[in-house]
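Table S7 (text form). Paired inputs.
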Amino acid sequence: MRPTSTLFTALLFGPLLATCQSNLPPPSAGIFTAQASICIQAPIELAWTALLDFASYPKWNPFARSMKVANGLGVVLDDQTPQENRRLWIQAQIPPLEPPVNENTPPNVLHSQVSFENITTIDSTTRRASWRAIMLPDILLDAERWSALSVPNSSCTLYESREVFGSLVSLLVDLSMAPGLQKGFEYQAAEYKRYVEGLAI
């Protein structure tokens, strides 16, 4: 797996993150990784609620512009509560839009991507959530995104997110979209921090 370094994370949060134990599961092997971590000045309960409030993503998220919970047939549900083994339609911008964004920010149609995923983890005890790409068989595209929250000290809530891309299609994704994906993870982390801290005021 080729590691992805993030200057954004290293410069702003390197001293903190270097002393923190990650709440993400161990990474799997893959072609490349997109990831970001950031310290949020807000209670973990508030951050967890915001992380799973997919309906609010268009208000702040420059990367995942729409997250819709669906059933196994892909039909969007009235109940948008994320649950394990429900499906997820994600409309993403790769690379992300320039923040700040809101629900009225127009997409860049040239950089819009749609993926269909299975929600694999929603764990309010460990504060972990994950979803796996299922549009293609794993032998072609193996990609699962994890997000986690923890409280490494009394000063902040630590947000971490990581996606490891493996299998054949990931070679093409790596060549064509890896920098944009990494930028998306970093922009989402920064805007998630801004959004949650705004809710905490």
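Next pair, protein 2 of 2.
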Amino acid sequence: MIRTLATALAITFASIAPVLAAPVKFAVTDMEGLEALQQEFGAFQTALEEATGLDIELYPVSSRTTAVEAMNSGQVDLVLTGPAEYVVMKELSQPRIVVAWQRPDYFAQIAVLANGPIRSIEDLKGKKVAFGSVGSTSQHLGPAQALADFNLKYTADYEPVIISRNIAAEALIRGDIAAIGLNFGHLNSVREAFPDIAFSVVARGRDLPNDILVARKDIADDVLIKVRKAFAEKGTELMNAVLNGKDNQKFKGGFFLTEVKDSDYDYVRSMYRTIGIESFTDFVN
């Protein structure tokens, strides 16, 4: 009798005991290693926990491909990624959009020597133009699209070469290349690295689509609602926490944009097509 009563009580207590929810795992595609992730997003992790009431866990991924695999296997719930990566993730994972992370002055441009021979877009015909890695929105896709918007066709009207930013600046100064495709912040960095050299811009693109936070397609609806609500109602507090990270200063002055849809990234898809990529099922390097 006593044993039966004890068993019944154990079952009763087990049934009313709270079930601990699994943590919501957050990853960033361009940041490797847990230590770096904690340094940049540790304060944001705490702020998001306070705003949602959820247990948020930082989850490091080694690559964009790893992030997709983790989403598809249910190992990660939220992924912050760039616009070029998003359009591929959309094809591979069908993630749900949470919120866009605005980056002020996020646009591509074509820089030349201010006292050099290139004075206009037309002067770039037949010349070499340096870009960053093919997968970069603001250092390759965006600058190529900026030239296309001025009717200069990729590979047909000029020769694209892939060179890292500072090396490209040195090549430009030597006269080995005619121009560099890069974003606003990167050009400022180049000017700081070469303070005795004058640079000018011959082409600017439109503002690029924003970085975007997505959720795995089968995330629980109540979790997604809580996270979206947090960004809508506690955006200022969350952004202040984001800006605790040194590398996150690119978001300074920006906002979390809740009115965002997949078609907002069609401009990125047009960039891929500009450089000859028609399929968005693989990440390009």
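The first strand starts at residue 24 and ends at 28.
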